[in-house]
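Why does residue order matter? Because the sequence determines the fold. Keep that principle in mind as you read this record.
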Amino acid sequence: MTIKRWDIINAFIKKYDYKTFLEIGLDEGHCRDNVNIELKESVDPSDVCDNPTYKTTSDHFFELQSLRQNPCTYDIIFIDGLHEANQVYRDVINSLKFLNEGGTILCHDLMPPHELSQIVPRISGLWCGDCWKAWVKLLSERSDLEMYVVTEDYGVGVIRKGNRSVSKEMNVPIDIMDWDFYRSVKNKMNYISYEEFCGKMDWML
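Structure:
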């Protein structure tokens, strides 16, 4: 059984009866098309992506929302846009501002399979980018967030409001994190199997 990112998204939608979904980084729309929810919106500036709701960058989208008297808010937000650590970090911080109570943020590509797959700019066919660095930074800073990574589909990170101890040993600047650092901290990034995820969700495999 191959588990995809939208399977994890749909598990949250079903468990919490979510109604509104935002996807940052639409690409060809495979994830959007497989998500089962009443309202689906997307943000992507690319000329080749599949008809996003908002054809702009995520930074600009969130800036515009912050200026609105009644900004859009969402039950579940999936971050899969520009696969660069500083952008992913900003996308998480901004998403938290527009997340409904009890909502969930998910981040893709947090388990690069080899060093080349996480080098920015892209030099390999299979590319996760250095999204993992944003995850490590958040783990080192935010004690108010529950965070774990489901080890399917190159790593799907889950963020929900909660309480946890920060990982101070991970508190280093993003620009000095390298592959050796990743290898030294990967066992502290809160990876869980899909079976463990199903247990958390009281889910049937």
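Residues 85-97 form the longest helix (13 residues).
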